[in-house]
Amino acid sequence: MSLDSTFFFYLSAIGYFAAFICYLMNATVRPAENEGKRESSDETLGITTQPSRVLAYGSAWGRWATWITAGTVAISTVGVVLRTIALSRSSEMFMPLPVSSTYETLAFFSWAIPLAYLFFERRYHLKTLGIFATGIAFLLIALGSSPLVPKEVSPLVPALQSYWLVAHVLFTLSGEVLFSLAFAASLLLLWQATRGRPWESLKRLDEISYRAVAVGFPLFTLGGLVFGAIWAQRAWGRYWSWDPKEVWTLITWLIYALYLHGRVRWGWQDRRTAWLLVIGYVASIFTWFGVNYLLPGLHSYAG
Amino acid sequence: MLDHQAKVAAVKALLAGKDCGRCGHATCAENAEAIVSGASPYNSCLDATPQAAAQIRQIVGRREPAISVSLQTIWQILTSVGLAIALIIAITLLSIVGTLIPQEASAAEYIQRYGQQGYLWLHALKLDGLFQAWYFLTLLLALLLNTAACALKRSLVSWRLLSKPMPDRSGDELPQLHYHQELPLGDQQEQGALTRTAQALRASHFRVRTSEDWLKASKNRYGRLGVDLLHLGLIVILIGAIYGSLTGFSAFQVAHAGETFQVPQSTFSVRVDKLWSENYANSEEIKGWYTTLTVIDGNQEVLTRTIEVNHPLTYKGISFYQASFGSDWWDQGHFTVQVVQSGGKVLGTYPVDSHGSFSVSQAGLTVTAQTFFSDFALDENFQAFDRSQYLNNPALLLTVRQSDGTERQSWSFAQESLQQFYEEHLSGQELYHIRLLGMTAPEYTGLRIAANPGLPVIYGGFILMMLGLFLNFYLPPRWVWVAVAKGKLQLGALGRDHREFEPGFAALIQRLQAQLQRNENIKEEVYVAR
Predict the structure, then answer these.
(1) I need a surface site. Which of A236, B3, B238, B479 has the fewest CB within 10 A?
(2) By the 8 A CB rule, do B50 and B83 touch?
(3) CB neighbours (10 Å) of residue A228?
(4) Contacts of A235 in chain B (CB under 8 A)
(5) Chain A interface test: which of B229, B499, B510 (most A C-beta within 10 Å)
């Protein structure tokens, strides 16, 4: 097997799986904490409470998990770089970065989600989300390895040969990477809330979700709506055609806008915002995959 | 007069006292005044308890509002949260429907998918052209108005907040603020506490004003404008879109090499000098379509450029986009066919045009080229159709008339295997087979011609929107007040909203504690996690 980008992606799948197991063990193999005991907290309004035991930081499994994830991201980076080089070698083809096929976008996600997660882990000292980050990276590579997903560098139709495409896809996907983290944190929050955990101890998850969206929403707006419109104007002479991909991008954007208004402006401080993040993420996934494969139209770049 | 002042004071006491601005007024005092005079609703304070709101209502009582009821109500509805949520949900749901039902398709397509009745319903409800339907556009317009009203309201508050210097707050007022912390001070600490606090704040890029026993600090004051800019940007985008759709146009022009066409809504014309299509090396895949255009304005050749997809030509505000490419197989094809007797004897090779004919005298045949398919395929009913404009599977349908008057249809495929299959199994009792040897047709270029005067406005709106988003999320405003009294350090703060500054404030407190403790115990190293 040649040492090309695909090799490194498959190798990273192994790494992510190992990290996934470590994060899982880190979250489960621990002294069970007392459900009834109230978390110690500053009584003063607005100060976050001490992190609860389930979300704690520091066991051996956890340290291994972080190191393996970091190493795997490095391996995945090699894969991305090799793919970029392969693209530039394909002499006739215009595409400076690997963002134009389903395989490449899956690979991008599997590289970027754990990378973004590591930043959040460092800032918030929370390892439970690592289960999701590494798990989803592994799943995406598994999806990408399917024979239904062509992996060759294949020539692009004229409409896709544009720097605006690169900007459009890069920024949109980056936004969606962060939406993925917000999604994971919200799922965890909702699950814990259903098990009766008090809101105070879940605040950290809410905070993480918000920060992820705070970074991701401007990226998604810039890439999905602004660059998408500019590119459409350059390619087709029409910056907005109400085609399914554009409409679903708008829908996704509106849902996240609703979330931001709820949390920031209207004081929603409960499960509503978490649910909005879940729904918004489902919409963003549908925008990415569903439109390509399930709906016909100008934007169906399946494959 | 006294009555009015007493009411204002009473209402003010019932409000949350945080001066957060969310009611639409810069301070609680202003809102109290507005509530009593009727300009602000009794429940405008989002942080007041329901009991407090009820009490406010009782104080204000039923009375004539300062502005007329209808205007007041309209304004309240326009700036209401509920309207925004309802509009966003309605637009979202309708948009989803618009992606599930094909838009702007032919009646035949709809009838095939939904049946005759289904199509009639769809058409009546305008679901086949939903995004241009009056009800959808009305919702968009309503959202524009809602956004504009909310943006205006907030901008006025921003203006009032930012045009005044940062207000002073006494130590007693600090516990009321969103963020508040009290730090006990040891005897030795009290003296330098304020200075150290100022130092810590300055290290975090705050602008600090100190006095004897209090200080006030602010950072990113203008970050508050982020939201205003963002919403202004959205409004500008929508205005640009409306303006563009009213003043712009879009047209499609098919042209062959050498043709000159008059450009719609303008005084100049364009000549197509050359057009060509390129494939990727050794491949059927299209790499690019190219057209060389010359703009002729006032009998002068002003500009010559080659366009391709993603690289249009723009002249006097009108743009020419390479949209598609093709060959005139239908009307202007030139074919070369070979007539072969069923035994194998070749009778001759003949050129024939689309819809043209030729005769084979020795066999008494007249052959007419009827229809050409560049990409022949069979649908589920075994009917022939042309799958694409690309020369993937050329097939020519001909009519063969014999000297006795009988007429027969005969197929001719460029692909040898297909031709063989046809001759062996499908051609029946044909005495003569026709083989398709070659085909050419003049190529044409498909150009989209469009102008949109609203584009600069829309792009300007994009910039405003992105600036606003950046300012809002990356430069949020902070206001901190500190007072030292009775052995305690009181801190009060306001952030961009009442949750966003939580972790930042906690971090600030920790840094301060570290600073203060350093004074107390010089030898001990105090490590405080960030």
Answers:
(1) B3
(2) no
(3) 24
(4) 309-310, 321
(5) B499
Read off the pLDDT of residues B30-48 as tens digits, 9 standing for 90 and up. 888 888 877 777 777 877 7
In angstroms, the CA B49 to CA B334 distance is: 84
Q: How far is A214 from chain B (nearest CA, A)?
A: 6
Distance CA A245, CA A3 (A): 36
Distance CA B103, CA B42 (A): 47
With CB atoms and an 8 Å threshold, state whether B500 touches A215.
Answer: no
Structure confidence at residue B352 as a pLDDT band (50, 70, 90): very high
Dihedral, CA atoms, A155, A158, A162, A164, nearest 10 degrees?
Answer: -120
B102: which chain A residues are within 8 Å (Cβ-Cβ)? 296
Nearest residue in chain B measured CA to CA from A222:
B466
Contact check, Cβ <8 Å, A48/B469 = no
Q: What is the mean pLDDT of residues B484-491?
A: 86
Q: What is the pLDDT of residue A2?
A: 64
Q: How far is CA A95 from CA A165, A227, B426, in A?
A: 9, 16, 47
Tokens describing residue B157 = 């508050």
| Residue whose entry in the numeric block shows the structure tokens 């950046």 | B470
Give pLDDT, residue B2.
52
Please identify among residues 95-154 of chain A the ones whose CB lies closer than 8 Å to any CB of chain B. Answer: none
pLDDT: which is higher, B108 or A51: B108
Summarize pLDDT for B407-454 with one digit per residue, the tens.
888 999 999 899 988 888 887 777 888 999 999 999 999 999 999 999
Q: How far does Cα B248 stand from its chain's mean position?
A: 19
B281 neighbourhood in chain A, CB within 8 Å: 92
Pairing type for strands B395-401 and B269-279 reads: unpaired
Q: Residue B40 and residue B60: Cα distance in Å, rounded?
A: 11
- Taking the alpha carbons of B482, B483, B489, B491 in that order, is the dihedral positive or negative? negative
- Smallest Cα–Cα separation from B97: which of B134, B122, B116? B122
Q: Spell B272-285 as b/e; 16+ CB within 10 A means b.
A: beebebeebeeeee
Give me the mean pLDDT over the B120-139 stretch: 93
Is pLDDT of B395 > 60?
yes
Q: How far from B186 is each of A36, B181, B213, B517, CA to CA, in Å? A: 36, 16, 16, 9
pLDDT > 80? residue A41 = no
Q: How far apart are CA B149 and CA B420, in angstroms?
A: 73
Q: At B50, which amino acid appears?
A: P
Q: What is the pLDDT of residue B336?
A: 93
Pairwise CB contact (< 8 Å): A229 & B241: no
Please tell me whether residue B369 adopts helix, strand or coil conformation: strand
Is A229 in the B-facing interface, judged by CB distances under 8 Å? yes
Which of B312, B473, B497 is the closest to A237 by Cβ? B312
Give me the pLDDT at residue B68, please: 62
Nearest to A261 among B84, B98, B283 (CB): B84
Residues of B in contact with A236 (CB under 8 A): 321, 323, 448
Long-range contacts of B358-365 (CB under 8 A, 24+ apart): B360/B432, B363/B339, B363/B432, B364/B402, B364/B403, B365/B339, B365/B400, B365/B401, B365/B402, B365/B403, B365/B432
Tell me if B519 sits within 8 A of B203, measured CB to CB: no
CB atoms under 10 Å from CB of B496, counted, come to 20
Q: Rounded mean pLDDT of chain A? A: 84
ipTM: 0.86
Q: Is A14 on the interface with B (CB under 8 A)?
A: no
SS3 B70: helix
Q: Residue B241: phi, psi to the nearest 5?
A: -65, -45
Q: What are phi and psi of B388, to 5 degrees?
A: -155, 175
By Cβ distance, the residue of B46, B91, B287 closest to A155 is: B287
